[in-house]
Amino acid sequence: MPKQKTNSSAKKRFKVTGSGKIMKQQSGMRHHLEVKSSRQTRRLNRDEVISGNDAKNVKRLLGR
């Protein structure tokens, strides 16, 4: 049986923590940053845990 290939776009966008949670970069940090407050940009710059429904699909894409 052939090996399962990891989805290339998924491996660039998501990372798996030691406990198995899947993290992603929050949206809203690409443009119009001069309009947003420093407080908001600091909050958006942190990684975010993916919800359970999406995590199942992402794990399949990552081959886990």
Short summary:
The protein has 3 helices and 3 strands. By secondary structure, the chain is α+β, with helices and mostly antiparallel strands.
Account of the protein in words:
- It contains three helices and three strands; from the N terminus they run αββαβα.
- The chain is elongated, with a radius of gyration of 15 Å.
- The chain has a three-stranded antiparallel sheet with strand order 1-2-3.
- The chain is an alpha+beta fold and 64 residues long.
- The longest helix has 11 residues.
- It has one domain: Irregular (Factor Xa Inhibitor).
For the biggest sheet, the summary is: 3 strands, antiparallel
The CATH class: Few Secondary Structures
The percent of residues in helical segments reads 25-40%
The structure class reads alpha+beta
What value does the average pLDDT take? 95
Which residue ranges are poorly predicted, with pLDDT under 50 across at least 5 consecutive positions?
none
Q: Distance between the terminal alpha carbons, to the nearest Å? A: 17 Å
What sort of overall outline do the alpha carbons produce when their principal axes are compared? elongated
CATH topology: Factor Xa Inhibitor
State the order of secondary-structure elements, H for helix, E for strand: HEEHEH
Number of strands: 3
Strand order of the largest sheet: 1-2-3
